[in-house]
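Hi support team,

I submitted a single chain yesterday and got back a structure, but I'm not sure I'm reading the token output correctly. Could someone confirm the output below corresponds to the sequence I sent? I've pasted both exactly as they appear in my results page.

Thanks,
R.
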Amino acid sequence: MLADLHCHSLKSDGQLTPSDLVDRAAEKGVTMLALTDHDTLNGIDEARQQAIKHQMEIISGIEFSSVWNGVGIHIVGLGFDESHPVMQAAVKRQEECRYERAVTIAQKLEKQGIEGIWEKAVEIANGAQIGRPHFAQALIEMEKVSNMAQAFKKYLGAGKAGDVKTLWPEMSEVVGWIRDSGGVAVIAHPDKYKMTVTKLKLLFKAFKDAGGNSIEVTTGGMDASFSKRMAQLCEEFDFMGSQGSDFHGPRPWSELGKFVPMAKTVKPVWSHWQ
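Hi R., thanks for writing in. Yes, this is the structure output for that exact sequence:
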């Protein structure tokens, strides 16, 4: 079995439709998949229907944005009841936060003299949540910049006009949403937070105290030595381990099913629902 429990479609900030993503995952040998789009469940039904022809198991998934001690932390939810009222209310709240942020970004860019940026971003998003990548692509198509890097450097990166902060919920609240909906809460890509081991332990303790019980031990691009350390911390905190590519699109460093193998000493998160 090859499980990839962290990936994204164009329903959030990925490049493939849920159906195309499932087809690609099957080509890469994935047999269990969780589509974890940011703060939305809109792609799961399509992914589940497409997975039938591949005999692939689809696990309900989502990646929520949250904060802990002022630091942005992403929490993946797995194996929850998608129709649960708590989950439905949580998704609605997060989607509203993302929409309000997008509107503010557009207003700020309009003040920079980029007229029509909202309409172009909406067109590019094509029904998906509107985020900074869509604004970046809009800036390229409007010939304001020549590439993504330039879009962020000039308009969307830290300290620029399009750098709009969102008041995300506390991590403990997000963990509660997932648990109340019957799922497992997982700290996503712990290597991305650039924390010392001491601070990671503080994060993990707060996460456990909130009811969290799993961390991503291996993700796309994670160093083998860091993955080994996460396996050790799983044992220390009595966490289950999860894994996933964090796939957004065809890139050499983040392919579906591609990551350092999870240590055999770690109890896999899928044992929770199997």
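A quick pointer for reading it: Residues 3-83+171-272 form a domain with the TIM Barrel fold (CATH 3.20.20.140). Let us know if anything else looks off.

Best,
Support desk
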